[in-house]
Amino acid sequence: MLDILTIFVLAVGLSMDTFAVSMTAGLTDRYKIKFIYYRFAFTMGFIQALGILIGYFLGIGLEKLISEFDHWIAFSLLVIIGGKMLIEGIKNKGCTKRSTINMNNFYIVTGLGIATSIDAGIVGIGISLAGYNIILTTTLIFIITFLFSCFGLFGGKFICKYFNNFPAEIIGGIVLIILGIKVLIEHGVLN
């Protein structure tokens, strides 16, 4: 029972960045088809679970190699997409324009998934060392990430729907840039 609680808390922690990115996507989105939201959330959950599996199977020897540059990849992806959103938000002024996070673009969605789940690989290594059940862990992390992504998407859409002049793209861009900076701080680059 303690293992499930630990894995649940870990899954929630790993899902926070995904929630923020999903909220940003929901804030700036104009899609009417819910399938696109569920596909986005599924992709976020799948990549997070895949990161856990990769870390689990690669083992500790590769951690040192990956940890030297993983934070720069996540930072770059988040700042590029966030910067683009910030610029578009300044041009568009509010929730009246099409999203700069194109949830139909495979590369953007995959890039966001990778950026928010790079730490999952390192966590996967820790899970292998702690002896947790990888099937249970991966399944729970996928489900929690999927749910947090859905909450973020629909929450963002709700905010934008009822607060039409809400500067969604500007705030979303700033959130993504802050997440990128947070990644560098967590890895000791900006200490």
Shape, per Cα inertia axes = globular
* SSE pattern: HHHHHHH
User: Which stretches are poorly predicted, pLDDT < 50 over at least 5 residues?
Assistant: none
Number of beta-strand segments: 0
Helical coverage, percent range: over 70%
Radius of gyration: 17 Å
Mean pLDDT: 79
The total domain count is: 1
SSE-based structural type:
mainly alpha
The fraction of residues in strands falls at under 5%
Number of helices: 7
First and last CA, distance: 37 Å
Please describe the biggest sheet, giving its number of strands, its sense, and whether it closes into a barrel. none
Structure, described:
The longest helix has 29 residues, at 134-162. The chain has one domain (2-186). The protein has helices at residues 2-27, 34-58, 60-67, 70-92, 106-130, 134-162, 168-186. It is globular. The termini are far apart. It is mostly helical and 191 residues long. Helix 1 (2-27) packs antiparallel against helix 7 (168-186), helix 2 (34-58) runs antiparallel to helix 6 and helix 4 (70-92) packs antiparallel against helix 5. It is built from seven helices and no strands.
